[in-house]
Amino acid sequence: MLIHQTVDCPYCGEPNDIEIDPSGGRRQAYEEDCQVCCRPWRVTVKLDGDGEAWVRLATADEVEDNE
Asked: SS3 letters for the chain?
């Protein structure tokens, strides 16, 4: 069962609907493009024991600074 979340693009600020697949593990990281401005962001997901998802978005600049 997918978890649906609405997140705000870190570039344009517009809301985007994303789907998280819990079968991908308790910690996930992947890239997804904004549905409005098409710029890519890094999605980091942590799932707790109750199946609640914590989602963080990072711009390409933030990802490069942390690598």
From this structure: CCEEEEEECCCCCCEEEEEECHHHCCEEEEEEECCCCCCEEEEEEEECCCCCEEEEEECHHHHHHHC
| Contact (CB, 8 A) for 39 and 32 | no
- Pick from 4-8, 42-46, 49-53: least confident: 49-53
**What is the rounded distance in angstroms from the CA atom of residue 5 to the CA atom of residue 32?**
13
pTM of the model: 0.82
| 12, 37 Cβ separation under 8 angstroms | yes
C-beta of residue 67 within 8 angstroms of C-beta of residue 59:
no
Residue range of the domain that includes 27:
3-66
